[in-house]
Amino acid sequence: MSLEQEQKRSEQGDKEWEEQLRRSKEADEEMTRKARWARDEYKRQSLRAIEKGHVAGLSGHFQKQSHRRHSTFIEPSVSPVSSNEVRPRPGLQRAEPPLYRRRQSRRHSSTATQPLMDSPAWVRTPRPNSREMVILWFTEEQKPKQAGYERNSNAIAPWFHGIISREDSETLLMNAAEGSFLVRVSDRIWGYTLSYRTASGFKHFLIDASRDYYSFLGVDQNRHATLADLIDFHKEEVITTTGKELLLEACKRTGPSVDFGGLFP
């Protein structure tokens, strides 16, 4: 092949690559546009449902909470996840004065039993940016929902480990059987991470708890009223159709005393 022919072939290859790149960019832009439209449409439908006094797919108990949540939280868009933990989700930011209003209400108001986060002094921020904030969120929002407890019980579930790192969770699961699992509080989103033992390693599934239900991010469209409901559901139903992950055995806590990372002082 002559030099001229080789040059023409190279130019043709460049044109084909540029055309593929252009089509790929157009496809990405179209997907982004559709995702934005779907997100906006979901918000419109949600607001319309709230105005009518209900939210489709939620139980009556959680319908009562929805309007209040939409007034105090900013819900950002979320990218689907696979088995790895992903980008941050909304956080909870403390306003000044921090806990004074809570203490005062205990003495002078009958509303002391309401979560402090329902106060206008609390707003959503892009992410939980400190351990203190994670503990505050769990105490104010999740404890009243019995998150981390066994169903209809005051006993902490054996699968709940509180605030531990990804590395610690894998250490605990290292010698466990396939299908063993534990749940820990995530420091990336307002929610949890389910760490799962596979035949060859580990998987970490994010659980969104920023709304009035619990659901896996990106891999499962089922919504559950409680964290225990989600766990019990996936003892019988696989998390993903490809991995066929079933929650077979809880990885129990070890050691004489466990403080759950400060969640239960």
Automatic annotation (TrEMBL):
Enumerate the UniProt keywords alphabetically.
SH2 domain
Q: Which domain of life is it from?
A: Eukaryota
Query: Region Disordered: which residues?
Result: 1-44, 58-124
UniProt keyword annotation of Ribonucleoprotein present = no
**GO cellular component terms, semicolon-separated:** cytoplasm
Q: Which PROSITE patterns does this entry report, sorted A to Z? A: SH2
> Start and end of every SH2 domain?
159-251
Q: How is this protein named in the record? A: SH2 domain containing 4Ba
Keyword Lipoprotein among record annotations: no
InterPro entries in alphabetical order: SH2, SH2_dom_sf, SH2D4B_SH2
Bias class Basic residues marks the residues at 100-109
Low complexity composition bias: residue spans: 75-85
Listed CDD domains: SH2_SH2D4B (cd10351)
